[in-house]
Every structure is written in C-alpha cells, then in structure tokens.
C-alpha cells in the first residue's frame, strides 16, 4: 500500500471509529433529557442539561492538558482509552444513579478533550495542504453518519410511545454501549507510518506516531505541547477563529440536545412526539452527511476557498432559526414532564420541525468542515495544540449553553446564536482572506486548499 493510500485508509478508519462511538453518544445526548424526565419521579434526580454542562465544562478545562497527554501516550492509545470512558458514560443509563451519572460526566469531559485532540492530530498528520479539505470532509461525513443510524432506531423503537418504560431504556442503552465499544476497538486498525520530520523538529507535537521510548523525551514533549498551546492561543488567527468556534459550540448544544427536547415537549405533535425526536436526529444526520460529503468532494475544485461554504452555513442556520421561532413554543426547552400545550406563531408542524433539523445539520457541517480544514492548513506543524484550543473554546461555549438551556426561553437561545453566528462568520472571513494572501505569496494555487 502506497503512503498516500495508507493515509487515506487511516482517515477512513478514524471516521468509522468515531461514527460508532458517536452513534452511541450523540443518540444518548439527543434522548437523555427525555429519558431523565421519565425517571425523575423515582430516586433518580439528575438533569441531562446539567450533565452536558458538566461534560463540556470539564472538556474545556481539560483541553489545556490534552496535547501533553497525547504527546506522552500517543494518539492511538489516547483514543482507545477515551472511547472506553464514552462507553462507561452511556452504560450509566442502563441502571441510572444520580452520583454515577454526574461522576461519569466529569470523566467523559476529560476523555473528550484527549479524544478530539488526538483526532485533530491524526487528521493533520495523515493530510497535506492538497488533501486536508478532502480528508476533513470525508471524516466529517463518516462521523455524522452516527446521527442517522442511532436516531433511526429511536424513531422505530419509540413509535407511538408517550412514556419511555424501564425495559425500553435498558434495551436502548445496552445496544448503544456495545456500539461505542466496537468503535473503540476499531482505533487499533489505524496504521502507523514512518516519521518524516527533520532532525530539528524533535519537539514538534505533530510527531504523534513517532518514537515514545524515553520517559524524559515524553515529558519534554508534554511541556513543549503545553507551552505551544498557550503561545498559539494568543495569536491573531486563533483569537479570530475563536469567535467562529464559539458559535459552533452554541449551535452544537442546540441541535444535539435542546432541539430534540423541544420537539419531545410539544403535546400538539400527539403520540408521535417521542419518536419524532429520533426522526429529527436522522434529518440532522442527513444534513451533516450531505454537507461533509459535498464539501469534501468539491474541495479540490473550489476556486473560492472556504468562505462561500461558511456563508452558506450561516444563511442556512438563520433560515432554520427563523422557522423554529415561528414553529416551536417559547417554553419548549424548559417544559415539565407533561410537556407544553402552548403555540408559537403557527400551529406546530412536524414537517417544518424536521426540515429545520436538516438545515441545522447542513449548516453545522459547513462550519465544522471548514474549521477543521483551515486549522489543519494553518497549523500543520502544531496540530495538537491548535485543535486543543479549538475544542477548548467550542466546549466551554457548549457548557455555557447547556447551563442557560435550563432557564432561557427559546427566543433568547435563538437570539444568542444569531448574534454570535454573525460575528463568527465575519472573523472566519478575515482569517481566510489572510490565508489566501499568504498562499498566493508562496506561489501556490488557492483552489488547492
């Protein structure tokens, strides 16, 4: 197998592994609050929103040390161990206990930081400036296939149910735990390749599959990775991209947790309200897969760079927010177990709700594929710290969003995303224009990015 074929194989295995793990985790996140609402008349008194807020809060803090962990342990083992913690979190729902639920939330926050730092590093080391766009799209399309498969099961399994029984819950979460473990095992198929760095680059954190023999060398790499993270976080490009990244954290919270809860709380959807959560997740997944696939395949022929894709993403999201504002009752995110009988500015429409799910997924893929691409392009030599900063900002904003989702009406949540999304698009454009100018100065073809 040629070096390029081996790198593409690694990207595909990386994407498939994440697809399995996040089939389990994203489905879990999408139905967690609904399941927990049905548990709160028992001894269990947890909150899905609070759990996700803990996860993303710990996730953000852990990104400060995750490059050092990856530098010491290596990306493959980092992803395997992280995958195990994802599986343990999902397994908690088989027999829920409040203390175990919140404890697992802390551990999965740490694991997530390590997992995504290792993923970004692995993506970058298996790409170059000509393939980073394609590989980002391929990875994203495979990853977001997870939304399709898990939610397809929820749609059919919960068809016509207004209450989730103990048997229903256990069956779902045993299956999701097994699926997560399968994805974890697949990380072992990622093939190592020869380190191609020059002798003067020993401390570069992109040597993720290199020699980890010396304990002193490991510590040196760990310290260097931490210092590099702090240094990069203060650069102009990272600060500008942080606004865009902040928006992806806010809308991630909305489409992966809040919107499904809103749909499940609308009593006017009748007996289909619970299964409609699964259908919503399926169409979010279709939007994500379509976006990742198209933008990955077209990246080689895109003469205008990343900005048109990001522009498409913000337009699609603004349309979705507008329709959701008209279709969903304002109190849907914080409705009690009995749901809400309120109506927004139109009678709640299942078709509009599902269309909005598709638009949310498509817009999200626009932003994330282009952020992965530009980070891999700008920081090919410092990928672990760069992706750690990306996930730090994204996760801390997601944590804040999950926290205020316990209290804010729908209209205020939508307004926050509109404002941050607008400014995030402008800052992305600024960085992309500078990247294009730098590429032109080197005599490279802009369409290659």
Description:
With 449 residues, the protein is mostly helical. It has two domains: 1-190, Growth Hormone, Chain: A; 226-442, MFS general substrate transporter like domains (Growth Hormone, Chain: A, Up-down Bundle). The chain is built from 14 helices and no strands. Helix 1 packs antiparallel against helix 5 (98-125), helix 1 packs across helix 9 (236-265) and helix 3 packs antiparallel against helix 8 (215-233). It is globular. The model is unreliable at 195-212 and 445-449 (pLDDT under 50).
* CATH homologous superfamily classification of the largest domain: MFS general substrate transporter like domains
Enter the CATH topology name of the largest domain.
Answer: Growth Hormone, Chain: A
Secondary-structure element string: HHHHHHHHHHHHHH
Q: Beta-sheet strand percentage?
A: under 5%
Helix and strand composition category: mainly alpha
Measured as a percent range, the helix fraction is over 70%
> What is the overall pLDDT average?
80
- Overall morphology: globular
Q: Determine Rg (CA atoms, Å).
A: 21 Å
The largest sheet is: none
CATH architecture term of the largest domain? Up-down Bundle
Distance between the termini: 25 Å
List the domain count as a whole number: 2
Main location: membrane
Subcellular location: Membrane
Keywords: Glycoprotein, Membrane, Transmembrane, Transmembrane helix
Transmembrane segments: 7-26, 46-65, 100-118, 138-158, 170-190, 238-256, 276-297, 309-328, 386-404, 410-431
